[in-house]
Amino acid sequence: xxxxxxxxxxxxxxxxxxxxxxxxxxxxxxxxxxxxxxxxxxxxxxxxxxxxxxxxxxxxxxxxxxxxxxxxxxxxxxxxxxxxxxxxxxxxxxxxxxxxxxxxxxxxxxxxxxxxxxxxxxxxxxxxxxxxxxxxxxxxxxxxxxxxxxxxxxxxxxxxxxxxxxxxxxxxxxxxxxxxxxxxxxxxxxxxxxxxxxxxxxxxxxxxxxxxxxxxxxxxxxxxxxxxxxxxxxxxxxxxxxxxxxxxxxxxxxxxxxxxxxxxxxxxxxxxxxxxxxxxxxxxxxxxxxxxxxxxxxxxxxxxxx
Length: 306
Hints:
The chain has 13 helices and no strands. It is mainly alpha-helical.
C-alpha cells in the first residue's frame, strides 16, 4: 500500500507541469496557432518564479511572476507570428532556444541556492484520513489549480460562446473575420494564455517539484506537453489522462531505479520520452482519429482583409 500511495501521489505531482503546459498549448492550437516554444516559456516561468522566491516574495507572488514571465515570452512569439507573419514553427523553435539561454543566464547565480518548497494544503481531519487522505488531500495548491484549470478550460471550450468563437477562429479565420470577430486579437489572447499556463508549469518545477535551480530543469517536458496535445487529439480530457500516463512513467522509472531493477538507468530515464515517440507513431497511423478534432487552420498565417 505504501508503494501504491507513493506511485499515485508521485504521478499526480509529476503530471502537474505537463497539465499546465499542455492545456495552455491546446487553447493556443484551438485558435489556429502552433507555438513550439513551450520549453522556452516554461524555463522563463521557472527562473523568474525562483528569482522572486529567492528575493523574499511570498509563494503566491512568485507563482504570479512565473506565470507573467511565460506570458511575456509568448507575447514575443505573438508579435513575430501574428503581427509580422513570420513562420510559426521557426519562431517557436527560436523561442525554445531563447528561453533556454535566458534562463541559464539569470539562473547562473542560483546554483547553490535552495528555497522552501510549496507546502501541501492541510485540511483538518480530511488530510489525516487513512489512505484517502494521502491519495487526495495532501498536495500543494498548484496541483489543485491544474485540475481546476482543466475543468474551466473544458467548460470554456465546449459550453460558452467564447469557446465556440475560439474554435471557429482555428477552423476558419476567414469566416470568423467575415462575421465580425477580431481574429488577430483572439489569437493574441490565446497565445498569451498559453504562455501564462506554460509559465505556471515552469514555476511549479522550480517552486514545488524541485525547489532549487537546475539549468534546463524542464528536461524536455515542454516537448512532451506539445506531443500530449497531438496524443490527445486536441481534447482536454485526453490531455489530462495523457499527462497522468507520462507522469506515471516518470515515477515508475524512478521507483524502478530505487528498487534496484537491473536495467541501465539511462534506459529507464529515457522511458517517458520513448513512450512519447511510440504513442505519436501509433496515433499517426489512424489518420481519421488524428484529424477528427484537428484545427483546420493550424499554423496557417492570417492577414485580415481591409
